[in-house]
Amino acid sequence: MRNIRLYFWFQVMISSMAWLPVFFLYFSENLSLRDVLLLEAVYYISIVILEVPSGYFSDVVGRKRTLVFSAIFFSLAYFLFFITREFEFFVAAQFLLAGGMAFLSGTGTSFHFESLKAIGKEDEYGEREAKVYTWRLAASSVAVLSGGLIAHYGLQYPYALSFLTAIPALAIALLFKEPTAEKEASEHGLPFIKQLIKCFSYLKQAPLGWLFGFAVLLYVLIHVPYEYYQPYLGLLEAEGTLTLGDAPLISGILYALTSAIAAFAAGYSIKLRDKLGLTNLLLIALFIQLGIIALIGSWLHPAILLVILFRNLALAITDAPVNAAIAPRVETGQRATYFSLQSLTCRLAFFATLFTTSFFVEKEAAISWPVLSSILLISAGIGLALALVLVAFSVKNRKLIINPDD
């Protein structure tokens, strides 16, 4: 049980990312819009480079060491963000941040499942994962509110606060014990290429293939408002309609309330899955997210801030159910690599979105409402088309995927 208790606090600390509500504003303060978009693209291409190797590293070397490396990368990234203002150093910090995310992705979920399996409580994984996710969001809520408040004195200070929570996370990771769940000897430690082939073979299973497609689409749709709500606030502030405070403060408050709403919803995610069925729940979440993006892109007005509050709802009600559906279906020796492949595809898809978008913006152009509105509405339109593909596949193969967790 020691791993389970420590994992809870590790996730609370590592999720306390005070910089989240101000990163776009911080970059924009020092760089042109084109450079900001390219800088974000650097992060996502770094994930492409690091994601799958980090999952393979986890499967071969161990969960504990991978989580320790994750905490180290986060700490170094935050330190560098705090002390620099130059594009080249921002690039280095983005690469380190990507390393932290990549080494955490997949490994955290696998570590939690395998730690429970080691003590015969893997059947509790769904409920426990929902609880961890709820508290992660609660911690994030406090962190981003604090970040928004101290950003009033300097947009670099939230990175300093994040550094102060990453260090305890590193200390906790060092106390982890490698899960003792049995390893499938014939599969664990496969050569890298064979490991990838094995992981891709899981997608031939209709439930896992459908869930993979869902995860990629939802990731992109979740990150569209995440990426652009800060410049949305900046435009409101420039118009003089943001009357309750400046953009960094309002961003911090918004992010905190968003996380609090998501944390509340996450606590009911497993009950919603049991009531609605997994596939129905996921499709409902997709259309909620599409509606949110369309509304944000249709109107530049403070009233839309109420819509932005729910931008994480879809992820909150699907994260634990999706992980609970996938983890038991993937063998121990490939679990972290599989989750990393899924995360890689998600981030590669959003990288492509950002990179492509940057070419439709003039090099020295400032953010404007027509540009921002077009980005959001086009994203919603493409997302709707892809969501309908998932609906069609679910109808055609209803018996196969209506409850992938069964």
Characterization of this structure:
- With 406 residues, this protein is mainly alpha-helical.
- The chain has 19 helices and no strands.
- The chain has helices at 2-14, 23-30, 33-61, 63-83, 87-104, 107-118, 125-150, 157-175, 192-201, 206-239, 247-266, 269-276, 278-298, 305-308, 313-316, 319-326, 335-358, 369-396, 398-401.
- Helix 7 packs across helix 16 (319-326), helix 10 (206-239) packs antiparallel against helix 18 and helix 12 (269-276) packs across helix 13 (278-298).
- It starts with a helix and ends in a 5-residue tail after the last helix.
- Mean pLDDT is 86; it is low at 181-187.
Roughly how much helix do the residues carry, as a percent range? over 70%
> Rounded to an integer, what's the Rg over CA atoms?
20 Å
| Large-scale geometry | globular
Query: What is the tally of helical segments?
Result: 19
Extended strand count: 0
Which oligomerization state do the chains in this entry correspond to?
Answer: single chain
What is the chain-wise order of helices and strands? HHHHHHHHHHHHHHHHHHH
N-C termini distance: 27 Å
Catalogue the unreliable spans: 181-187
- Helix/strand/pairing category: mainly alpha
Mean pLDDT: 86
Strand content: under 5%
Q: Could you give a short account of the major beta sheet?
A: none
